[in-house]
Amino acid sequence: MNFNFIPRIEFKELFVKSNKNLNGINYFRIGVFLLPSAFSVSSIFLIIALIINTKSEKINYFKDYFNYPLFLSGILILITAISNYLSNSQIADMRFENRIQFLLDIANWIPFFYVFSSFGNYLSNTKLRKEFSILLISGSLPIFVSGFYQFFLFKFNMPFSLSGPYKLFNGLITWYQYVIQPTGELGVTSIFNNPNYLGCWLLILLPFSMFLSIQKYEKRYQKIFALSFLISIVILIALSKSRAALGLLALSIPATFELNLLITTLFLIFYLSTNLLIIFFANTDYQSSIKQLIPEQIINDFSQSKLLGNPSRELRSDIWSSAINFIKLKPLFGIGAGLFPLVYISRNELTEEVNNWVGHTHNLFLELAFNYGLILASVISFFILFLIIKSFFVIRFNKLKACNSINNFNRAWWAATILLVSSQLVDVQYYDGRISIVFWILLSGLRAIIKEG
């Protein structure tokens, strides 16, 4: 059985009306293709796909046991959000925009539970999931172009007026592409407003791009095209200077390919040794010698002044310990969405520490526990962990394992999910709408893999 349809597929073929069991899939495909570069427009198509799928399929969500943890989570979120809103409304100093955030944050979760449940129809087999990955990578082309253009402006000291943000339709579509300051402290952001968001997005694409790169193609240019995407992803991750993304690069290969323990261990040792060597050379007299091989900005990131400037904050330890202490105050139902920056900066003022503003807990589990309590955080975390572990065993011991193309792609899907979830343990890029949509689509794909197995 040959599933290497990728080099022959045409967008015209992709958008042919599907059978009656997949009504709305073309809206889904358009939405996925536009998701990286035009989130607002993409959302319209994805909402239409959701509505059509719900009306035409008449899905009974209560019959699918995968939805039960999300039903419970949705109820907990609603109860906790309303409770926090009402209890904090009695505080005179609490501003309205802070109180309303308790309710607005519901939109970060409950609609995406519906995405998980409904979009499973569009991911129900390997062919459909491959189409999704192709559209996601193809739609990300503006991210690559924007990222390299941003670095080009910085490298050649071009006028700031050529940089972003660029806005279309009164800001409906915004490509941030901020000016990279001469110090080069922050890396490339591309169309995102933060290098960590770019790094997270590229990590999602990386396993799919690896899969495409190892496929056999009839024409050489197709192989070159696939490899170009892969190389561009790795280069842009380096240029983003996102520590989370750079660190997870080491995990991408063993997660995507079924390597034995020895090879995986050797690879990780090589990766860690390389980082230690860069740190060593960046802090010795040999620094000037390696600037010919490694960009100066990366060397500066590994310098002693950068690493030791504020280690507790850079390594998240201060943020996480503060979050844990805050959670202890209201462990069951949380303190409330959007309050972490306020309580964190208030704590710093009381302890007379450096007053650094921090927008969130930099860990998705702690974020959920702070906002809604440990009960909800545990339910969602165990649900995600179940999907990851169960799908791993399905892929690992699948009876169709002889069909390498299917198994390799499912492995790539699993790896993309692992990288995305892992990145949420050291940061919370989830609040970017593009990333949260893909987050739940990838989890829905794992559910489809489990059902297939």
TrEMBL record:
Record keywords, A-Z: Membrane, Transmembrane, Transmembrane helix
Membrane topology reported for the UniProt record: Multi-pass membrane protein
GO cellular component, one term: membrane
Chief site of localization: membrane
TM helices/strands, residue ranges: 27-53, 65-86, 106-123, 132-152, 196-214, 221-239, 259-282, 323-344, 364-389
Domain of life: Bacteria
Keyword flag Ribosomal protein: no
Residues annotated as domain O-antigen ligase-related: 230-378
Keyword Cell division set for record: no
Subcellular location(s) of the protein: Membrane
PANTHER family in the record: LIPOPOLYSACCHARIDE BIOSYNTHESIS PROTEIN PA4999-RELATED, TEICHURONIC ACID BIOSYNTHESIS PROTEIN TUAE
Descriptive protein name: O-antigen ligase-related domain-containing protein
Organism annotation: Prochlorococcus marinus subsp. pastoris (strain CCMP1986 / NIES-2087 / MED4)
